[in-house]
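Notes from the pairing session

We agreed to fold both candidates in a single pass and log them together. This is the raw record for the first candidate, unedited. Please don't reformat it; downstream parsing expects exactly this layout.

Candidate A
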Amino acid sequence: MARADDLFIKTCKTILEDGYMDISAKVRPKWADDGSSAYTKKVFGVVNRYDLSQEFPALTLRPVPFKNCVDELLWIWQRRSNNVHDLHSHIWDAWADSDGSIGKAYGYQLAQKYEFPEGLMNQVDKVRYDLRHNPQSRRIMTNIYNFADLHAMNLYPCAYSMTFNVVDHKLCGILNQRSNDILVANNWNVVQYAVLLHMLAIDAGLEVGELVHVIADAHIYDRHIPLVEELIKRPTFKAPKLEIDPAVKNFDDFSVDSFKLSDYEHNPQIKGIPVAV
């Protein structure tokens, strides 16, 4: 069994068996199809660790839409955009205004420049600088949960901070997430930030190490519970391999086509997943 499948199944079982059902609470999310309240079963404080030097953490229980995952990652971290017209999927359309903007969220925050001792830089370029010139620093991090701009964000950031640390020439990272829809977004986020660590490691001349995923509110929506129960009973396969274009060495030069999953054996996709917004 792939490590990603193992951790996903354990997380789902913990929520299903020990989670709190918030059906008696007043909740913000609504079901997109009928506008009724979208309740969840949840646990607080999930920590999953993925050793990227050993395998790439894509689920085999069902396929991850890999190209769309990478495209959104590049939209936020490389293109540093907050406009859905710069994105090739429609996953953010529900939060976009008539001009396509999602407000001062995600890529907008990573595009802002700050005065550092080394000069004026955005958060991504500061991380790249430190990984190249000061890799033993314990201060290499990003944070897009900017309280001053929350009022202008159409959705508060879910995955909001990364802390980077180099251990024995291996780039490790902690992804902090305030909220995670386990069925829809869990492996999506894991795959994205695994790719990000690979990109930054190559850019800095490092190897990849461990991705630690810390989730505050890990939840399964009520209408997703039967789907999850069926999903975690499926057979699993070996983890796929991540292939990266060896000609690309600079963070800004990566594209969606720079990455490919090979030997990716998986179960069928789940279709018709209800969407909560």
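Candidate B (folded immediately after A)
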Amino acid sequence: MRRGSRSRTVRPFIRAALESIEPYEGGKPIEEVEREYGLSRVVKLASNEGPFGPFPIARQVLSTQSYELNRYPDGSAYQLRALLAERLGVDIDEVAHGAGADGVIGYLSLALLEPGDEVVFGWPSFATYMLDTLKLGATPRPVPLRDNRYDLEAMLAQIGPKTKIVFICNPNNPTGTMNSREELDAYFERVPGHVLTVIDQAYFEYIEEPDYPDAIEEYFKRGKRVVTLRSFSKIYGLAGLRVGYAVASKEICAALAKVRPAFDVSSTAQAAAVASLSGDDADAELERRRSYNRVALAELGRILRAFGLETVGPAVANFLYVDLGVDSRPFFEQLLAQGVVVRPLHGFGAPTAIRVTAGTAEEHALLRQALQVVRPGGRSISD
């Protein structure tokens, strides 16, 4: 070999586990859509955010509190975790925080998964379960939904000696459907002891169904090997600040602390979350938003069905799922040109479906106008 020459056998620079991963597609900013299509008004019904922004008390705190933004936030989120622990009736060391519930999923994956481990979840479902499994070189075991709901029986059958995590999205994103207390009880009676079950309850505060289980009260506190995920991104209106949390054993929370970036949840996010929980009007505001969502979801369903878009149900969160039966991107793009952003679900494992979030009356009116122009095949009525 000549001096200075290099061997042609060079290790790949990028990890091989990333080769099959398509980056998460979050969609264009509203401002860019307005510019591209020459629109003066664009409504976003794509990402399941709450339509009203932060609670009034959180807005007040964010607008009046003086932050030392040259200082790092409290890396332990002590005040937030202490308040959550008190409200939930758990120990502070059984609460872990993160940059949204999906951030906590990433930390769980990083703390637990190694190449050769297997992860079971329903599919189509929240894309992060698949992506984070692949990122760590572990093996995803997606299980098809049954009647657009998680098939817990089939998931139990998929569990093997290499299974480390089972994700249960309840209610499921993107279908909006839920598994009942009876179904979850039966699952926990049979799930092997070596498996950690993660129940994603990001939409917990919206649910009014009496047979929907509270995973913290009914499974964690009864000694099940379970992690419960929740979020401030939905009904609390803090999606832009990125704050979520998990309730889990002290062992799991300690492991999460080892892999979580030191300052992942900002000072403003922590303050807004604390205010959302502790304000005098917090419980009443939760109920107002829950009641509004009930009405808005029903109205959204009527609008979609009036234009031949059959929704999956019963849906219990703040969004609806429609399977078009054909590639959903043309329909998405035609709606986009009309100023309405919905979610095509290719990354969620449902390339023929869309997800539409319940919005305000004005947003629904603009959706109705757009649907008078666009048809499910992605065609304009003028085509």
